Amino acid sequence: MLSLLVFLNVLWAGCLSRPPLSKENFLISARAADVTAKPGQPRMDDILNLGAVTVAPEFEGRSLVYRISETGYEFDAYAEFLIPPDRMIGGATRTWLRSAGLFREIAEPNSRIYATRAAELHVTEMYGDFRKTDDAAAVFTMRFVLLAKATANTEPGVALSKNYSRRVRLKERTAAAVVNGLQQAFREALTELAADLNKL
Hints:
By secondary structure, this protein is of the alpha/beta class. Helix content is 26%, strand content 34%.
């Protein structure tokens, strides 16, 4: 048993700073948006349905993911999100968009409210980057697709389709620092998204 503890401590020492065998749980959230509709113009008179958010398979688990080389990744067995990332990011995005005031309402995935527009969100990157000892960072990338309104004679097209990517440098190599960096990156991506929606 002692040899196992020593092995685990050595394993984590090169990548992350943490109390030995200490389990941590985290949640990424989004503050109320400070972006509103264009001055002098009404907000979009639409109910937006942001369906179930998808996350790339390598990042869809609750455990934090660290990139340790160009092709190497590892899961953190002692640090995880409180809920699965798809539900966490989806809920936070809906709350944030609702507070931004760009749509009349944001419908939940299983809501019976009739939505007049639909959007999709796919997270492609969400990890701590530890490839360089002096340049640790949190990396977050998402793709947002907003469908245009359908008319009587046409199917809904695409009004907006864009990747939002951020890399936030970390001051320390801890699980908490990675989550704080991911949260900052996520909020910055949402701010850019709101600015784009405000132009439509």
